[in-house]
Amino acid sequence: MDRRIKFRHLDAFSAIARAGSLKRAAEQLNLTQPAISKTLRELEDIAGARLMERSRAGVRLTPAGDVFLQFAEQSTTALRHGLRSVRGGGEMSGHLRIGALPSVAGTLVPRAVRRFTASAPDTLVEVQEGQHHDLTALLRSGTLDLVVGRLGRPDSMVGLTFRQLYTEPVIVVTAPGSAAVSVASLDELAGCRVLYPPQQSAIRPLVARAMIAAGQPLYETRIETTSAAVARAILAEDPTTVWFISQGVVQPDLDAGRLVALDVPLAQTAGAVGVMRRADDMATSSARTFIQVLAED
């Protein structure tokens, strides 16, 4: 076996460590579970140490793996930046890779990209939309330069920095003409089909806190999804459906009259929206300029 550590080893190791699961890490990297398991075994053979413990509950780092993770992520980040700098002829590589969470993918990020490309037409901008867990994994691996969106749970922000731009509430929306339009309390939603944020969603803890404050148990009729496309399709077909969602995700729909917001109180669901970057990363000129554009929006 080749005894050299390669990018694929480090990317796989980092993804498994952050996901806590071989299956979830394999999905993020578009690999099969046997393939990512083999890659991890190769890395442990090369390192000469057990880096992870596997169990039915998932995967966790050994003490050696915890130390190795820090150096692995720092190394891949530095090497990728070095390669981009050499290929691009300096710090301004001409390529900016942005991750956009759903709450900003249809509003803030498109506006900022238009303004940025007007001032830097020679820079290739790549935008990838996704969920918080997936995009921050790509950010840590060096695949993305920055991620824009809601601040995640504390454990999801390890190794990252966050610059707040504004706060945004969670709202409940439905289709125009829906029987739910007149609903004005959380308990009344029990008679509706509810589209609810799943466990990994950045807004789940905020909605859960509002539900607990109101003494409202989880809805038995709920469907948990992070897919805006799925939610919009269900809303269009079922007039009894309501959707808990960040306002930024549906603001274009509200402005166009495709959805309406219910007058349902959701205390303390305003969350910070901003820019995430790797804590050990020195931003390129392109990234710094784009962040400034975002701040001026």
TrEMBL record:
Q: Give start-end ranges for the coiled-coil region(s).
A: none
Which region is the signal sequence? none
Q: Which InterPro entries match?
A: HTH-type_LysR_regulators (IPR050950), LysR_HTH_N (IPR000847), LysR_subst-bd (IPR005119), TF_PcaQ (IPR012787), WH-like_DNA-bd_sf (IPR036388), WH_DNA-bd_sf (IPR036390)
**Keywords from the named record:** DNA-binding, Transcription, Transcription regulation
Gene Ontology molecular-function annotations? DNA binding; DNA-binding transcription factor activity
Provide a GO CC annotation, any one. Answer: cytosol
* Matches recorded under PROSITE patterns: HTH_LYSR (PS50931)
Q: Which residues form the HTH lysR-type domain?
A: 5-62
Q: A GO biological process this protein is involved in?
A: 3,4-dihydroxybenzoate catabolic process
Query: Domain of life here?
Result: Bacteria
Q: Belongs to which family?
A: Belongs to the LysR transcriptional regulatory family.
**Name recorded for this polypeptide:** Pca operon transcription factor PcaQ
Please report the organism this UniProt entry assigns to the protein.
Gymnodinialimonas phycosphaerae
**Gene name, please?**
pcaQ
